[in-house]
Amino acid sequence: MKKTSADVLPVEGVYGDEPLLAVDDLHVEFRTRAGIVRAVNGVSYTVNPGETLAVLGESGSGKSVTAQAIMGILDMPPAHIPHGEIRFKGTDLLKLSEEARTQVRGQRIAMIFQDALSALNPVFTVGWQISEMFRVHRGMSKADAMKKAVELMDRVRIPAARQRVNDYPHQFSGGMRQRIMIAMSIALDPEVLIADEPTTALDVTVQAQIMDLLADLQRESQMGLILITHDLGVVADVADKIAVMYAGRIVERASVHDIYRAPAHPYTKGLLESIPRVDLKGQDLYAIKGLPPNLLELPTGCAFHPRCPYRQDNCVTDVPPLYQISGTRGSACHYWREVLDGER
Ligand code: SF4
Predict the structure, then answer these.
(1) For the chain, give me the number of helices (H) and strands (E)?
(2) Per residue in 168-206, pLDDT tens?
């Protein structure tokens, strides 16, 4: 089959002012028997080399679906992308052939999944699974690919890598399994790495180690990193900027510094107040009231209005646009000024 220009990705450096990765007005819906589930409703964000974007939100906010759309791993149907672009170095991935998309997936853009135990194959050694990346994608011999696997296990700081390369996934702890997943994801030197809740199943100490490891790897290779999480506490030290998602939309975006100093959306404010603090020992932990909305029947107006302590009458009828507060900051709240000023 003759290749179109869309099948050929631009080489390094020709994408000019375009970000490394740009998600632009992306919509993803699932057509189910019960109706249309609008999982992603006009999401836009960018990531540049060496930059870390944290995408934050509760389950069902659309953060993982957006990531799966970037990777091209959504089951279509039932998933459907009626509108939007996902540009990698200026090329819209949604217009690529499946063959070209496969070239990007894993090699140029890679993903770490949250459940390392189920993502690893229990019947193959970890060395075999890591070295498969080099055998399949780089055409290396078994012996050379296994050497690369040991190098990668060293790089992600698995102790005694040479001795452990022939162990099976169940012989490793949860933290070590996640390191093996990270090793597999960076094997082919991707330019963008998406980490979907990479520390969810781990205890706090191991969480910190994994986040440090990701930050170090990113510094070494200047990857763009998209960190998907529901936990604002996890991203404080590693992210450059944050996009907060609710009901399939970005409701606030800002630098980490701005968000922690003064959130401009009531939902972000609630997430920050939900982080446990040692200085508030003995007090009840704050929780945002209510539940995330049913995506089959989104509330009218602002989707957060049933849970929002700042709600006014127009919030029930008028969908707030993402108000531009400054060059890098936006909030989808009609009353962002009051929230910023802490007036309620
Ligand atoms: Fe709350 Fe209204 Fe702002 Fe929505 S628009 S977050 S309901 S104050």
Answers:
(1) 12, 12
(2) 999 988 888 888 888 888 888 899 999 887 777 667 777
Residue at 232 is within a domain: yes
Give the integer Cα–Cα distance in Å for 186 and 225: 11
Identity of the amino acid at 228: I
Q: Does residue 334 line the site of ligand 1, with CB under 6 A?
A: yes
Which residue segment(s) compose the domain that 228 sits in?
5-9+20-108+190-341
Sorted by sequence, the CB contacts under 8 Å of residue 189 that are 6+ apart come out as 221
Record the pTM: 0.86
The count of C-alpha atoms lying within 13 angstroms of the C-alpha of 344, restricted to the half-sphere facing its C-beta, is: 15
**Alpha helices, DSSP H, located in 7-141:** 63-71, 98-104, 116-119, 126-138
Quick check: CB of 315 below 6 Å from ligand 1? yes
| 255-308 confidence digits (pLDDT tens) | 988 988 889 999 999 888 887 666 666 676 777 888 888 888 889 999 999 999
Read off the CATH number of the domain in which 267 is found: 3.40.50.300
Give dist(CA 293, CA 258) in Å, integer: 27
- Residue 335 C-alpha to ligand 1 middle, in angstroms? 6
